[in-house]
Design goal:
It is a single chain. This protein is of the alpha/beta class. It folds into 2 domains: 44 residues, no CATH class; 328 residues, 3-Layer(aba) Sandwich (Rossmann fold). Helix content is 51%, strand content 7%. Strands 3-2-1-4-5 form a 5-stranded parallel β-sheet, sandwiched between helices. Helix 5 packs across helix 8. The longest helix has 17 residues. The protein is globular and about 55 Å long. It holds the Pfam family NAD_synthase.
Length: 375
Amino acid sequence: MNNNITCNIEQCTKCILDTTVEDICFDQNGVCNYCREYDSVIKTIPYREEAKEVLNQIVKQIKQDGKNKNYDCILGLSGGVDSTYLAYLVVELGLRPLVVHIDTGWNSEIAVQNIENVVNILNLDLHTHVIDWEEMKDLQLAFFKASVPDCDIPQDHVFPALLNKIAKENKIKHIVSGHNIVTEYILPRNWSYDSNDLTHILDIHKRFGKIPLKKYPRYSLFDRMFTYRWIFPVKSHRFLYYVPYNKEEIKKFIQEKLGWRDYGGKHFESRFTKFFQSYYLPTKFGFDKRKAHLSNLIVSNQLTKDSALEELSKKLYDVKELENDKEYICKKLDITLEEWNKIMNLPLKKHQEYKSDYNKLWYKIYQKIRGILKK
């Protein structure tokens, strides 16, 4: 045990994470474990010329694998900053993406317009998959009734499930992802959960859901470990790791080039996610995701701590806007305000109180064998 680590400091001296983060610890300088993890990981990411060469090699392989096909990669487009810029970058690199938008029923009008602008200006083919609303609604309500923090899982799970499925159907071997380390690495572990965990999703639905999930896209542990790794290999690439990525500069760029409009917050292209992050999580659990998002910008030198604290001091919701959004969410989920208030007053639960893929016997055996083979 490191005697220089303590857990009684209120806030990190470098970022704005604090002791609402369950596993936060600080070194002798008051710097938290999340900042230190970021500093370690960022050193492993190729930089400048090396990054350019790595990206060029990936693009070369994608083009080679996509030769004589209509498309050489799949690109998921939400209308957000990252996927919008990624679409531009992919076209600039000479790739031919099949753009996929997955409609979970919660798109903001701005996000829809952003998507239309991107595909029209860049002349891209768009495939839109609409998730069965009754099933999505039932599953989202089940998560709220389970009283766990990460109720965005029902939406998040379908994205890799469908992108991989569509890749397989079209014999496309590559998916390009808009994930980037400089704005999305830091996220406290007790604030979220693995959205790929299908056993977890089905257990919560079995306990609290009301209708069968017949059409809901599934991304099983077997799919992740075998189907898309060995049977029909699909590689996922994070292009934004290899290019300069300053959030504010990128926003200005896509506004000018692609007619992109800002929707107000990270992942707020979904009205559900906006409400979940800005009301449900902070009100019920005391988790303000702005702390993580702003901390990531601090450690990547895109924002000062003082500016982050100033941003954090702003209200999460305008009173009237919250009232309207709460009414909208309840109406869309087919529940009354009274039923919603009961959900908010349920005892807090951890995701670990429900079943998980990672507790399966075959997975544990697989991990042991994998560990032995690595030695």
